[in-house]
Design a protein that fits this description.
single chain, alpha+beta, six-stranded mixed β-sheet, 10 strands, about 20% strand
Length: about 325
């Protein structure tokens, strides 16, 4: 049965999106072309933007409720990597006629759900039509105390490298959603698919951990750690055996349906990889325990350049590409 026809742009904004901006005075009721956002005294604004495209970052069959939450969470992950607290966001929607009112209504409900969870509110945005696939963009606005942002350029030689949570689940989940055979039982496949569709931004960890530099794992652990290397003018050494894996990812490795290179370069995990001085290990573990986010030390920053991966004997491993490339 066809859904409700999509109303005009301004009616759509009034009905679906203006309610999402009700708690942000600077949104001006979404009646103007721009918002007025002032940082709280003693804070700097942190902004980040991510765009997701159907067929590239989410699948046509994905529920719009989940698509909205993924859009918000991949942006919140960027705030987490800066150690920032979320405040507001701007929304850009480029959508075809095939996305009717019902799709957009459920999409707005997904935004509303995560607004409550993460303490954000809509401040403005733009909508336009396209003959191509849906292209959804969100600009996240956060706050951080001056000098407290976690910059990729702040790593130092000898610092330990840590990663939160587990790596490789999202890449496995994408295989599941594409109908590829992983050899795993149904419950494990579903768990991996959820990790792909609904990442968990590590905001509490980013604000709590005594890190020097950080980045979120969006394109792959090796590729994203490489961004810290470039910004800091250093190299990095990952001990593959230390990289934390979930039960499904470990089982898939044992079955041979994925390889360690797939785990290290797959992307979409949205965990934090960060560095900290070697003598701050206890402080790192205490902060992680306080916010109830597991972290694992997986290597160290080195002189030189690039990311090397070694096995348990310390021998270099060949992993091919470092991660997902957008171009």
């Amino acid at each position: 049965m066809p859904g409700r026809p999509r109303p005009g742009e301004f009616e759509l904004i009034r009905e679906l999106f203006a309610p999402l901006a009700a708690d942000e005075p600077g949104a001006l009721g979404l009646l103007d072309d721009a918002a007025l956002i002032a940082p709280r005294p003693g804070f700097e604004l942190v902004t980040a933007i991510d765009t997701i495209v159907e067929g590239v970052h989410f699948l046509p069959a994905d529920p719009p409720f989940d698509v909205a939450r993924k859009l918000m969470r991949v942006n919140l992950s960027d705030l987490a990597a800066m150690g920032a607290r979320p405040r507001a966001y701007l929304l850009g929607l480029v959508v075809p006629d095939a996305l009717d009112f019902d799709w957009l209504r459920d999409f707005a409900r997904g935004l509303a759900s995560d607004q409550v969870r993460f303490g954000m509110t809509l401040a403005g945005g733009d909508t336009t039509a396209t003959t191509g696939p849906p292209c959804l963009s969100l600009t996240a606005i956060g706050e951080v105390e001056p000098g407290r942002a976690l910059l990729r350029s702040n790593a130092a030689p000898g610092e330990h490298i840590y990663v939160s949570g587990a790596i490789g689940d999202a890449a496995l989940g994408l295989r599941v959603l594409r109908g590829e055979d992983t050899g795993l039982p149904e419950d494990a496949c579903e768990a991996a698919a959820v990790r792909y569709r609904l990442p968990e931004p590590r905001l509490s960890l980013g604000m709590a951990v005594p890190a020097s530099a950080a980045v979120d794992v969006s394109d792959g652990l090796v590729a994203d750690l490489g961004h810290i290397c470039v910004a800091s003018g250093l190299g990095a050494r990952i001990e593959a055996a230390r990289v934390p894996l979930s039960g499904p990812a470990r089982a898939a490795l044992e079955l041979g349906t994925v390889g360690i290179a797939d785990v290290l370069t797959g992307g979409d995990d949205y965990e934090l990889v960060f560095t900290a001085p070697a003598d701050r290990g206890n402080a790192v573990r205490e902060a992680a325990a306080r916010v109830r986010v597991p972290v694992t030390r997986i290597g160290a920053m080195t002189e030189g350049e690039g990311v090397s991966v070694v096995d348990e004997a310390g021998a270099a491993m060949e992993i091919g590409r470092a991660g997902y490339a957008h171009f």
